[in-house]
Prior knowledge:
mainly alpha; 2 domains; 3 helices; about 70% helix; DUF3144
Amino acid sequence: MNTPQDITEDQFFELVDRFVAQANEFGQRFPQSRVSAAILFAAARFNAFQWVNRSQLLQQTPDEATVAFRAEYEAMFRENLRSFGVLQPDA
């Protein structure tokens, strides 16, 4: 199977929406805090696996990868807080 190396912005947000919909379904059966913890753990597991098995051997240490993933998460979290009106656009 040939998988594309990149996707459109619409395809990206389709994936996001599907993950959120699945989390919302789980939220009907399990406490929201546990669903949140599970999706974070799943993302960490998937990202660690992807990083360890990346096709290009990058000169990035595990500590550097952790910093990069943490920074990316923080940026996405803040973007979502802005979209909910919790943070000002420049925060």
